[in-house]
Amino acid sequence: MVSENQQNEQSSLRSRWESDLSLEVVILIVFGVFMLLFGLLLFKIHTGDLPYAPDSTYGLFLVIVSLQVITMGKTPFGDLRRSWAVIVLGIFTAIVGMTACFIPGPLSEPVRILVGVLLFAGGFALFLQLVIPEGRARTWMKVPGVLRHLTLACALVYLFSIVLGAVTLLPGITTDPQTAVLLILYGICFFYLSWCIQAANRRYPPERPDMPEVPE
């Protein structure tokens, strides 16, 4: 009896220290931190108080994207089966990103365009996938609670992706302070989305087929 109580206490302590955050949520939090930090630092970069290497910023973004592709098969354009082709694509993206980080200059224009396309076209594609299929936004909005928050969070992230993709492709359309504000809001939206997905996974565990669909 004593040993069982001790085991229960140890299990309780272990569960208290262990995190139940999924890998998807963790990567979204990393994206949120990246965007929020970039937005905050951009104010100082604009005034010349901090040095700035755009290649490294774009390269780091590509590395984070590649981790999402490699580990989960999630691309900026939607979910794919985690095949070898997808993994190789993710590795190639990581190599491009790391090269841009290590050697600023030669890949400046290609990585800027690549990041801009991923944000703009990816955000547009994901937004269409959210609103057009019957099993997503249309269904989630009928269910009160976290699924409505999830719909809003997804829409905000995708729309900000489109806007910032346009800013990346056409740098002159906004000032640095305006871009910084957009990045900060984008980061907050990532935090909001990560909370929604975590709450939805707790409310509707994936192993329960009778529950509404939760985005992967």
From TrEMBL:
Source species of the chain: Methanofollis liminatans DSM 4140
UniProt name for this protein: Uncharacterized protein
Transmembrane segments: 21-45, 57-77, 84-105, 111-132, 152-173, 179-197
Keywords: Membrane, Transmembrane, Transmembrane helix
